[in-house]
Amino acid sequence: MRKFINYLKECYVELVHKTTWPAWNKLQSSALLVLVSTVILALGLAIIDFCFQHLMTLIYTL
Predict the structure, then answer these.
(1) Does some domain include residue 21?
(2) What is the span of the domain harbouring residue 43?
């Protein structure tokens, strides 16, 4: 149990004192980039799914 407590303490020290966190404006711009990329990818996949659905409907009605 003592090893686990030491591990948690070391994790805390590393996160608080040794980790370099990005600036708030950099974090916001990165989050915005991820959000925009996700929306574009979702729209692209929705278009592909729509086209594939209509293609399969056309093939099965022949």
Answers:
(1) no
(2) 26-62
Identify whether the C-beta of residue 22 lies closer than 8 Å to the C-beta of residue 31. no
Q: Is the pLDDT of residue 62 over 90?
A: no
Sequence letter at residue 18: K
Q: Is residue 33 part of a domain?
A: yes
pLDDT tens sequence across 35-61:
999 999 999 999 999 999 999 999 999
Helix, strand, coil % (nearest 5) of the chain?
85, 0, 15
State the chain's mean pLDDT as an integer: 96
Provide the domain count of the chain. 1
2 in helix, strand or coil? helix
40, part of any domain: yes
In a domain, 37, yes or no: yes
